[in-house]
Design a protein that fits this description.
Layout (H helix, E strand, L loop, with lengths): L1 H48 L1 H7 L5 E6 L6 H7 L4 H15 L10 E6 L6 E7 L4 E7 L5 E7 L3 E10 L6 H7 L4 H11 L14 E11 L2 E15 L2 E9 L5 E4 L20 E3 L2 E5 L6 E4 L2 E4 L5 E3 L4 E9 L3 E7 L4 E11 L8 E2 L4 E5 L9 E8 L2 E3 L14 H23 L8
Antiparallel strand pairs: 1-2, 2-3, 3-4, 4-5, 6-7, 7-8, 8-9, 9-10, 11-14, 12-13, 14-21, 15-20, 16-17, 16-19, 17-18, 18-20, 18-21, 21-22
The structure holds zinc ion (ZN).
Length: 433
């Protein structure tokens, strides 16, 4: 009896266990059903909502036609050739002017792209590539109105290092070209070194130089060059080094390795790359007058019409003619320095007594007026009323750094020097600041 009871009890347990299992199966099947429903909903959703995306992926390829701007082309001529009506052209040019500041076409440089969805559709997008760093996009909306957008192209600025050496009979210009320095960068280097160097007399075979400058890339393609970041030249009077530095207030300047302003108040050679034909001297035989007298300035060879830039910022105090100087301009730079430019063929427009000029502003054009044997620039620097030798006079720096900026500059200079050394060892590696 006891045994039978035990058996029944055991059977009960078994029954309950199997019942629980059945229940579990029910829960499971319900879960499966729900899951199935959810998945079906997702699937329907995918079919319903992702269809447009699939269409976009498999859309027929659009038709792009390109027009390169040639001389004589106008906006209306180009748009007209693509079938736009006079009214549409008028609207488009107004939109372009208003939203993209787009006015002039540059022949040989600008490009138009006209885009159609397919050959049966009208043009719905126009892309104007009118500069290396931006493009203009015109999009036709569903209502037929054109919207204009100016899009900036991101600039990838990389650093390039070039070094060279002056060979026998070389000029700095030739050596720079041989080193592969682009013409624009070489002109900037000239401008900078002209504050410290006399290219005629400071250049000797064996001198080494280098320049670190920016090159701007867009989509891995080199587009143009940027700033000169560092330059070094083994001049006779010692190594000339200059670094470009942007101050805390945004002002930009070039400084030597000690953080002193490298841009002087005056340039020793106002015209870049001009050969000195006669130096400053206390006594010399005058080529026209024939007797010995002092040459109070420096003569630079300059074909008639060569633009003459102001050696420094200042105010024009004389714009006149005399027998010796011919047409000349005199500029007062500060309480100490004045400069004079003689034998001009003509004065620059807008330069009169009282005109305030900036450093590098063209004040006139070279010639051979006055007592002169041929076209040249006679250049004088007058310090406290006395004529001084432009090539040797100590010139004050403008734009010196304050203590806070100097500290930051010295750290930045270290960074530039490190970059220079890395590029020197491996010129092809890509470096950015
Ligand atoms: Zn002279």
């Amino acid at each position: 009896m006891k045994k039978a009871k035990y058996i029944i009890k055991k059977m009960n347990v078994k029954l309950m266990e199997s019942y629980r299992k059945v229940c579990d199966i029910h829960v499971l099947s319900r879960l499966v059903l729900r899951l199935g429903l959810v998945m079906m909903t997702i699937a329907i959703g995918v079919v319903l909502f992702y269809k447009p995306a699939r269409v976009a992926v498999f859309k027929p390829s659009e038709i792009v036609s390109v027009i390169e701007v040639k001389s004589g082309d106008t906006l209306s001529k180009i748009l007209g050739s693509k079938g736009f009506s006079v009214r549409e052209i008028d609207t488009l040019s107004k939109t372009l002017k208003k939203d993209a500041d787009f006015v002039t076409l540059r022949p040989g440089r600008d490009k138009f792209e006209f885009i159609q969805k397919d050959e049966n559709q009208p043009i719905s997008k126009i892309v104007i590539k009118n500069g290396p760093w931006h493009r203009v996009e015109l999009n036709c909306g569903e209502t037929g109105t054109w919207e204009c957008q100016k899009i900036d192209i991101p600039r990838d600025t990389r650093l390039t290092y070039k070094e060279g050496e002056i060979l026998d009979g070389d000029s700095f210009y030739l050596a720079g070209m041989r080193a592969g320095i682009p013409a624009g960068i070489l002109a900037d280097v000239y401008d900078l070194l002209a504050f410290e160097m006399d290219f005629e007399r400071d250049v000797r075979a064996g001198q080494k130089f280098y320049v670190l400058y920016e090159e701007n890339f867009a989509s891995e393609k080199r587009v143009d060059t940027g700033h000169v970041l560092a330059v070094s030249f083994e001049a006779l009077r010692g190594n000339v080094q200059m670094y470009r530095y942007v101050k805390q207030d945004g002002g930009v300047g070039y400084y030597d390795e000690h953080g002193n302003g490298a841009i002087k108040s005056l340039k020793r050679t106002p015209i870049n790359n001009a050969k000195i034909t006669s130096s400053f001297s206390g006594r010399r035989k005058h080529p026209v007058l024939g007797f010995t007298r002092a040459h109070k300035g420096v003569d630079f060879r300059a074909p008639t019409g060569t633009p003459i830039p102001a050696a420094g910022a200042g105010r024009v105090v004389a714009r006149s003619f005399n027998r010796g100087h011919g047409n000349f301009v005199k500029i007062r730079h500060n309480g100490t320095f004045e400069t004079l430019y003689a034998h001009m063929s003509r004065f620059a427009k807008g330069v009169n007594v009282g005109t305030v000029v900036r450093q590098g502003q063209i004040i006139g054009y070279s010639g051979s007026t006055g007592l002169s044997t041929g076209p040249h620039l006679h250049y004088e620097i007058i310090k406290n009323g006395q004529h001084v030798n432009p090539m040797t006079v100590k010139l004050p720096a403008i734009n010196n750094l304050d203590a806070a900026n100097k500290k930051i500059f010295m750290e930045y200079k270290q960074q530039l020097d490190t970059t220079i050394n890395l590029l020197k060892d491996n010129p092809t590696q890509i470096m950015r600041l």
